C-alpha cells in the first residue's frame, strides 16, 4: 500500500502531464472569467433594456436603463413606421441578399476553376488572387473605377467592388481541391460536363464551406457603411449601418419627419438609438446559430487540405 500511495498522489497532482491548479488559482480564474463575461454581457443587456424601457423610465434614469420595470415597444414602432430607418432596413436587406448571392456565385465558380488541374490560365489567375491578398488597390483608384463605370449614387457601388474576397476564394478552392477525385472522374467518364460536375457533385459535397463563406459575405454586406459613405449622396439609398452611424455614433438628433411620424410624440433619443442598434444586430444573431455548426468543417478542413 505504501508503494501505491505516492503513484496515486502523483496521478492526482498531474493531469495531462501538467500539475492541477490549486484552489486559489481556480478561484482567481473563475473571478477573472466572470468579470470578462460581465463586461461583454452587461452593455448588451443595457442596450436591450434601454430600447424596451418606457420613456418615463429612460428620462428618470438619465438615458441608460439596465433593468427596466416594464416593456415598451414605442421606440421600435417609431423607427419602423415607414421613415428613414425603415427605408434603410429595406436597402440593407436588398444589398445583403443580392450581394451575397453574386459573391457566392463568383467565388464558387472561381474557386472551382482554380481547383481543377489543367484549367487554362490556372497558375497566373491563382497568382493574381494571392497578390491581391498582399496589396490593396487604394481608396482613390477604387473611387475612380466606380466613377468611370457610372456606379456613383447607385446601390451597385456598394455591391460590385467587394463582390469577391481573395481569402474566401482560397478557402473555397482548398475545399474543392480536397474532394474525392474518384467521384469527379467517374462523373466525367459517364459523360457529365464540367458544369454538371460542379453543380450536381461539387456544390452538394461542399455545403459546409458554401454556408460559411455565405455568412462571411452576408455579415460583410450587412455591416458595411464606408462604401455607402463614399459613393452614395442620396440619403434615401443609405443602408442601415450608415443611418446607425449618423444617428448613434455621430449623435445627430432624430426628428419626427425622419421617422415618418410627424406630429406624434417621440420616445427619448436614447431609446430610439438603442432600438436602431438592436435592429442592426438581430438579423445576424438569428442567422449565425444555423451556420455555426459548419465553421469547423467548412473553414478548418479547407485550410488544412489547401
Mean pLDDT figure: 83
Largest sheet: 2 strands, antiparallel
Structural class call reads mainly alpha
Number of domains: 2
Shape estimate: globular
> What would you report as the Rg, rounded to the nearest angstrom?
26 Å
Q: Helical element count?
A: 15
Please name the CATH architecture of the largest domain: Orthogonal Bundle
- Residue windows where pLDDT falls under 50 for at least 5 positions: 7-15
CATH class bucket of the largest domain: Mainly Alpha
SSE pattern, N- to C-terminal: HEEHHHHHHHHHHHHHH
Relative strand content: under 5%
Instruction: Identify the strand order in the major beta sheet.
Output: 1-2
The fourth-level CATH homologous superfamily of the largest domain is MetI-like
CATH topology of the largest domain: MetI-like fold
Number of strands: 2
> What is the helix fraction of residues, given as a range?
55-70%
User: N- to C-terminal separation?
Assistant: 55 Å
Protein name: Multiple sugar transport system permease protein/putative aldouronate transport system permease protein
Keywords: Cell membrane, Membrane, Sugar transport, Transmembrane, Transmembrane helix, Transport
InterPro entries: MetI-like (IPR000515), MetI-like_sf (IPR035906)
Subcellular location: Cell membrane
Amino acid at each position: 500500500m505504501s508503494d501505491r500511495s505516492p503513484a496515486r498522489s502523483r496521478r492526482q497532482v498531474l493531469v495531462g502531464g501538467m500539475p492541477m491548479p490549486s484552489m486559489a488559482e481556480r478561484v482567481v480564474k473563475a473571478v477573472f472569467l466572470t468579470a470578462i463575461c460581465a463586461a461583454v454581457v452587461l452593455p448588451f443587456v443595457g442596450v436591450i433594456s434601454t430600447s424596451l424601457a418606457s420613456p418615463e423610465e429612460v428620462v428618470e434614469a438619465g438615458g441608460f436603463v439596465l433593468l427596466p420595470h416594464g416593456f415598451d415597444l414605442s421606440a421600435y414602432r417609431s423607427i419602423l413606421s415607414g421613415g428613414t430607418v425603415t427605408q434603410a432596413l429595406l436597402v440593407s436587406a436588398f444589398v445583403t441578399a443580392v450581394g451575397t448571392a453574386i459573391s457566392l456565385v463568383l467565388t464558387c465558380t472561381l474557386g472551382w476553376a482554380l481547383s481543377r488541374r489543367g484549367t487554362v490560365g490556372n497558375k497566373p489567375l491563382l497568382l493574381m488572387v494571392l497578390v491581391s491578398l498582399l496589396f490593396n488597390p487604394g481608396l482613390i483608384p477604387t473611387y475612380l473605377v466606380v466613377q468611370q463605370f457610372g456606379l456613383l449614387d447607385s446601390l451597385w457601388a456598394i455591391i460590385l467592388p467587394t463582390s469577391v474576397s481573395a481569402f474566401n476564394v482560397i478557402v473555397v478552392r482548398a475545399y474543392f481541391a480536397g474532394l474525392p477525385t474518384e467521384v469527379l472522374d467517374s462523373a466525367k467518364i459517364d459523360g457529365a460536363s464540367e458544369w454538371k460536375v460542379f453543380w450536381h457533385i461539387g456544390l452538394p459535397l461542399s455545403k459546409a464551406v458554401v454556408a460559411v463563406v455565405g455568412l462571411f459575405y452576408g455579415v460583410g454586406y450587412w455591416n458595411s457603411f464606408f462604401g455607402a459613405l463614399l459613393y452614395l449622396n442620396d440619403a434615401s439609398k443609405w443602408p442601415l449601418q450608415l443611418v446607425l452611424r449618423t444617428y448613434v455614433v455621430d449623435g445627430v438628433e432624430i426628428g419626427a419627419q425622419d421617422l415618418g411620424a410627424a406630429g406624434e410624440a417621440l420616445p427619448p433619443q436614447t431609446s430610439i438609438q438603442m432600438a436602431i442598434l438592436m435592429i442592426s444586430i438581430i438579423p445576424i444573431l438569428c442567422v449565425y446559430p444555423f451556420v455555426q455548426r459548419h465553421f469547423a468543417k467548412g473553414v478548418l478542413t479547407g485550410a488544412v487540405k489547401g
